[in-house]
Amino acid sequence: MMQNKNITVTSPLLPDLGEFTELLKEIWDSKWVTNNGSFHERLESALAEYLGVPYISLFTNGTLPLLTALQALCITGEVITTPYSFVATTHCIWWNGCKPVFVDIEEDTCGLDPDRIEAAITPRTTAIMPVHCYGRPVNTEAIQAIADKYGLKVIYDAAHAFGVQVNGRSVLNEGDMSTLSFHATKVYNTLEGGALIVHDAATKKHIDFLKNFGFAGETEVVAPGINGKVDEVRAAYGLINLRQVDKAIEKRRAVAVRYREALRGVPGIRFFDDMPGVRHNYSYFPIFVNAKQYGSTRDELYFRMRDAGVYGRRYFFPLISSFSTYKGLPGADPSNIPVATRIADEVICLPMHHELSEEDINRVIELIVR
Ligand SMILES: *Cc1c(COP(=O)(O)O)cnc(C)c1O
Fold first, then answer.
1. Is the C or the N end of the chain the one with fewer CB within 10 Å?
2. 264-322 pLDDT per residue, tens
């Protein structure tokens, strides 16, 4: 019997090798390989235009902009955040010497529930760090209203929200700052990479100092900075990849449409539809398994898929707040975060990328619909 090939949850969007080689030659000829080279500059401009944001600073990954945002905004004390995210979100709060405070999520976005934020605010709270989970925008208006009322900063971990717009406006323009990840597993990648989006030129200048050890010129250091600089090879890679990202998102959209057609009405399987007015990027396709109605648990389905060579991911399980380092923190007790706790036990992100064939999609569906 012929062995079915494995179907992976994601697949990196790779630039055309010929085009990439052309740009590599330019870099080799110039011998300018890092520290604000011309490709770095071109990628920042191209991304600002593509995303519809005024100022963007590239970073070597999606974790450094989170760390740097908190540094730049001088965040201290307590930071309200979501337990339902990649662990880097909470790590960055901790690395800045702040205390993460967990607040529950909304069922419809899997992002911070604005109605539960105020109860977690104390005199030590200085910031809110929500996540646009799966690229589904959280209620930024409600969160900003709370931030304004209590004088808090808002830093969005927008690692999943590349290209996401609400009513024609980039969601990355919300809050004080937003961060992106360009890791190979994301919709748009530079192998490793990331970015910080800010609203004014002075702040961008400060961020650019911070990502270069705090250097503001040859002999002056203005702040305790870090090294987040992006080299020319990676910037060139990113420049070419940007040209094909719309096509990749369109392919992802078609996959989402097929999954929805096939899974609608399957008892015990819940999934998301598009949100009104939102331009989605289809970065993930989470399904939520209600074990009683579906007849098997999330994990039974997950491992059944795996045994058949179909690799989903339990994103996000376990909750950040359940890791031993964080489980003693405010809000970490499951009784305080019932929605996140339940959803973490229900979720499987199905394979979602630009290379899935009709046959692949059907294999995934057949494993779920019995
Ligand atoms: C991927 C991701 C990050 C970290 O990005 P890296 O580029 O891997 O450092 C942070 N937050 C969320 C929500 C992510 O999914």
1. N
2. 999 999 999 999 999 999 999 999 999 999 999 999 999 999 999 999 999 999 999 99
Atom of ligand 1 nearest to the CA of 63: 9
Express each pLDDT in 115-174 by its tens digit: 999 999 999 999 999 999 999 999 999 999 999 999 999 999 999 999 999 999 999 999
pLDDT digits (tens, 9 = 90+) for 33-72: 999 999 999 999 999 999 999 999 999 999 999 999 999 9
Q: Which atom of ligand 1 is nearest to the CA of 66?
A: 10
Domain 17-240: which topology? Aspartate Aminotransferase; domain 2 (3.40.640)
Relative to beta strand 55-59, strand 194-198 is antiparallel
Domain extents in the chain: 17-240, 245-368
Residues 6+ positions from 183 with CB-CB distance below 8 Å: 61, 62, 189, 191, 192, 193, 194
Beta strands in 2-73 (DSSP E): 55-59
- Residues 39 and 43: their CA atoms lie apart, in Å, by 6
Candidate from 59, 157, 164, 317 with most ligand 1 atoms within 8 A of CB, to mutate: 157
Query: Is the Cβ atom of 157 under 6 angstroms away from ligand 1?
Result: yes
Query: What architecture does CATH give domain 245-368?
Result: Alpha-Beta Complex (3.90)
pTM score: 0.97
Q: Whose CA is nearest to atom 13 of ligand 1?
A: 86
Q: Is 131 in the pocket of ligand 1 (CB under 6 A)?
A: yes
Residue nearest to ligand 1 atom 2, measured at CA: 159
For the stretch 17-35, pLDDT in tens is 999 999 999 999 999 999 9
Cα of 88 from ligand 1 centre, angstroms: 6
